[in-house]
Amino acid sequence: MSTAAPLSSTPPARPIACGEEPDAGFQQRWDAWLARGRAHERRARQRLLVVAIAIGAAVLAALLAHGPFFS
Question: pTM of this prediction?
Fold first, then answer.
């Protein structure tokens, strides 16, 4: 289980200095950044699952081929 906090879809609050215009496209870029991060995590977990299953199958096959389990 992960102990990391879930990603939020809202940016952290940042005070705007006097005379500074807020960036109109910031929220769109922030949401796109978060979406790319979630997609990357999903792909990484899927790959890890595939690798874990493949390693488990190889270990099981090796144990069954060389072990006296069914003698």
Answer: 0.55
